[in-house]
Specification:
- With 634 residues, the chain is mainly α.
- 66% of the residues lie in helices and 3% in strands.
- The protein is elongated and about 85 Å long.
- The chain starts with a helix and ends with a helix.
């Protein structure tokens, strides 16, 4: 019987032995005259037997469960390939990495969103309640700061949990960021924009940037530069494809606002056109005496220049439009991309793979290898390609000279590139659209932003491959050429503005094309350097400090990028505001000299009433485009 009971399952054993124990106790209580020591001994024996069999049953159950339970599909164990994984098959690690980076490449074309977000209410031109560019540009910088903090503090965690879980979390955050930002635009809530694109977007961006880079480097320790270049070139490809996609979606979802009629400023006849009333805060509404429009309706005045810059279709031309009656299409376009990019990133994350800790590429390392090693790896011995060797991130950041020098190099080179990327479309339309409207159309501007993405993709792939030949240090030295190129941009822009105000361009004495092409090609070349910086950086870190902790060290180094994302865009935004203020003062002076009453006829404000003029400017009622309408030709 006892042998039969022991063969039962753990649950049956427990119940039988518990009954045996109870029987002994009952016998003890009912036989007080018997030897009590004997019953105490039997009771203790039954307890020991119960404990022994229960422990063995539990142990056997745990061993059985360990064998049957499979690791989660997103776990690091599930993402780890067998130790004998064929070297020739390692190229399959690239498509998932490419998919992830394609989904976040659009972060670099933030300037595609800002012009329309700055006209969320006015649609055709800015309304008094619309956001300004100085309030929108810091959103990109906030995302960069969040990315830097994420990669710096959670880089080691990404290595610990594996690429699938980190990538999936990043995809969810990036998708949620775009959806939250879209809701913020729809509700016209600036805090939601900072929460979405700035906070959630930065965290998701950090996870989705680090995960593919560290994984791919482990598969290609013998060709780190080229491998990371291929993966990161997808980042640039995403930035190249995104402008056309964004432009098409915005055009598809955009609707024109309600046209009220012409006004005096746009060529209407007094007494027969819309009459406007300027309120104390500088905004404008339809006047009570206006023959057209509903009195008290908040409106904006769109000039021919505003119409030329807008991509909204079915416009009625220059004139007065009701505020809040149209749609720029930004919210719906961003929400659509949030779903698409989230799905693409999740798909790539699901199929990410990392090699076994003891895996090494064989001598015939597949298509990515050549007979010679990279210049940086020559003479470093067989341990150079070992994924388990490397200095800890805490030691590298505090006890080496190379890390701070590398940090400063990334910061200096990235500042100019990020200034261009964050405001590229704004710069092109602000400077050249007014002097060459037949060339610098909305489609041309979109093509320019796409060309920057192409330049970044080519730079990430090309410079990373070149660095395997000439060395990482020499490649970084070449990137220093980007400093004079970016430094030339303000001078070039000021030259064009000076020629515009002097009338040389209008008279045909000077062509704007050489300046436009110089700006265009110089920007693309500088962006190739910018792309090369970040595609080489992971391989450079692995060369200097070893592969084992390269992901965590890379995360620390990306804080330099975060700092440059604040210095570059914010510095450019400050220069833009300063230039706009000077241009407004010059135009007001020109109006005062040629026709001082023009401002009062159009805005009901004397040219000498500085306080009212300041209110009109703050309310965005008085803009450079509208002042240009009041200045004499040339």
């Amino acid at each position: 019987m006892i042998r039969h009971a022991i063969s039962f399952t753990h649950g049956h054993r427990s119940r039988i032995l518990l009954n045996i124990n109870r029987a002994f106790v009952h016998l003890q209580l009912s036989s007080q005259s018997e030897d009590e020591d004997r019953w105490q001994h039997l009771h203790r024996s039954s307890c020991h037997l119960y404990q022994h069999i229960s422990t063995r049953s539990l142990s056997n159950a745990e061993n059985t469960n360990d064998k049957n339970i499979k690791p989660s599909i997103l776990s690091k164990e599930a993402a780890t390939a067998p130790i004998d994984y064929p070297t020739s098959q390692r190229l399959w690690a690239l498509p998932p990495a490419i998919a992830i980076h394609l989904s976040i490449g659009s972060v670099y074309v933030y300037s595609m969103w800002t012009p329309s977000m700055a006209k969320a209410l006015g649609v055709i031109t800015v309304a008094p309640q619309d956001w300004t560019h100085p309030t929108l540009i810091p959103i990109f910088s906030t995302a960069a700061i969040t990315l830097g903090l994420t990669t710096s503090t959670l880089g080691a965690w990404v290595e610990k949990v594996g690429p699938r879980k980190a990538g999936m979390i990043g995809s969810a955050l990036w998708s949620g960021a775009l959806l939250t930002t879209a809701a913020g635009v729809e509700l016209h809530s600036l805090p939601m924009l900072y929460l979405g694109y700035g906070l959630l977007g930065g965290i998701g961006w950090g996870f989705m940037y680090l995960t593919p880079v560290t994984s791919v480097m482990k598969w290609f320790p013998d060709r780190r530069g080229l491998a990371t270049g291929i993966a990161l070139s997808a980042f640039g490809a995403g930035a190249a494809l995104a402008p056309s996609i964004i432009h098409s979606l915005i055009d598809y979802f955009a609707t024109a606002p309600e046209f009220v009629g012409e006004c005096v400023l746009t060529g209407g006849t007094a007494g027969e056109c819309v009459e406007l009333c300027t309120l104390a805060d500088g905004s404008q509404v339809v006047a009570d005496t206006s023959p057209l429009g509903e009195p008290g309706t908040p409106v904006v005045v769109a000039t021919e220049a505003d119409i030329a810059k807008s991509s909204v279709g079915n416009m009625s031309g220059a004139g007065v439009y009701a505020v809040g009656t149209g749609d720029t299409g930004v919210a719906k376009a961003m929400g659509t991309l949030g779903v698409l990019y989230g799905g693409l990133g999740a798909l790539g994350s699901r199929h990410m793979m990392i090699p076994h800790a003891e895996w090494k590429p064989t001598q015939s390392s597949g298509a990515m290898n050549t007979d010679s090693e990279s210049k940086d790896s020559q003479g470093k011995g067989s341990d150079y390609n070992n994924n388990n060797i490397g200095l800890p991130a805490s030691y590298v950041t505090t006890n080496t000279l190379q890390f701070p020098l590398l940090w400063l190099s990334v910061f200096g080179n990235a500042t100019g590139g990020l200034a261009l990327l964050s405001s590229s479309k704004i710069m092109l339309t602000d400077i050249f659209a007014g002097v060459a409207p037949e060339i610098v159309t909305p489609a041309f501007s979109t093509g320019y932003v796409s060309s920057l993405g192409v330049g970044m993709a080519l730079g990430r792939f090309g410079w990373s491959a070149i660095s395997d030949v000439i060395g990482r240090k020499n490649a970084y030295a070449v990137f220093g050429l980007g400093i004079p190129i970016v430094g030339m941009t303000p001078y070039l822009c000021h030259t064009v503005v000076d020629m515009t105000t002097s009338g040389n361009l209008a008279s045909g004495e000077v062509s704007v094309m050489p300046y436009l092409m110089t700006f265009y090609t110089g920007s693309v070349l500088a962006i190739t350097f910018y792309g090369g910086i970040f595609s080489i950086l992971p391989a450079y870190i692995a060369d200097l400090f070893g592969q084992k902790h390269a992901g965590a060290i890379h995360g620390k180094a990306l804080t330099a990028w975060a700092a440059s994302a604040v210095a570059g865009p914010m510095g450019l935004a400050g220069l833009r505001s300063y230039s706009q203020q000077n241009a407004m003062e010059d135009l007001l002076h020109t109006i005062e000299v040629h026709d001082a009453s023009a401002l009062e006829r159009s805005f009901g404000c004397s040219i000498h009433d500085k306080a009212t003029i300041e209110k009109l400017v703050d309310a965005k009622t008085l803009t450079i485009e509208k002042l240009m309408e009041l200045t004499p030709p040339g």
